[in-house]
Amino acid sequence: MRPHGLRGAFTIKPLSPGPPPDFLTHIQLQIPGSEETFSVPVRTWKSASSGHWIVESPDFTLERVQTIRNAIVLAPAEDFGPLDDDEVWVEDLIGSAVVWPDGKARGQVTGVMESPAPYPVLVLSDPEGREIFLPLPSEHFISFDEDGKILVVSTPE
Fold first, then answer.
1. Which domain, by its residues, includes 111?
2. How far from the centroid of its chain's Cα atoms is residue 102's Cα?
3. What CATH code is carried by the domain that includes residue 137?
4. Domain total for the chain?
5. Rounded Cα–Cα distance for residues 106 and 7 (Å)
6. Residue 141: which residues within 8 A CB-CB, separation 6 or more?
7. Could you read off the pLDDT tens digit of each residue along the chain, which spans 157 residues?
8. pTM score, two decimals?
9. Residue 14 sits in the same domain as residue 74
10. What count of other Cβ atoms lies within 10 Å of the Cβ of residue 151?
11. 79-84, long-range: CB within 8 Å, 24+ apart, which pairs?
């Protein structure tokens, strides 16, 4: 998060590309190194050519935005509404076993990397204990068993 312009707007770098969530009227900010969060009302959301989102809040001035530079932006999952049948929260994949469609083990999800790609990049520990970065565009996502924590993918080797 960083200032944008002189009127207290700020930019947010989203984890994945797409339109800004203009249905959110409030977001939570967390200062790095602190566990406390505070609510910020949002007047407008805009898309920037860089892929960032521009947020205008009636509570912010340029000086105030500069004091919270690099804050982490949070929004409750319930504010986004129910997921479609073919959607999952990427953080729900952490700890899941990743397998090919034939059931052969690919590894276990240990994290998610931020990247400029328009899809998540999963961090896996393979059966030999090596770290693997697995880009996961939607066409390679086959299924996810949330109860069994099994993710089926069709990515190339």
1. 90-153
2. 29
3. 2.30.30.240
4. 2
5. 49
6. 86, 151, 153
7. 788 888 888 888 876 667 788 888 888 889 888 888 888 888 898 888 777 888 888 888 888 888 888 888 888 778 877 888 778 888 889 999 999 999 999 999 999 987 777 788 999 999 999 999 999 888 999 999 989 999 999 977 7
8. 0.64
9. yes
10. 26
11. 79/21, 79/23, 79/24, 80/21
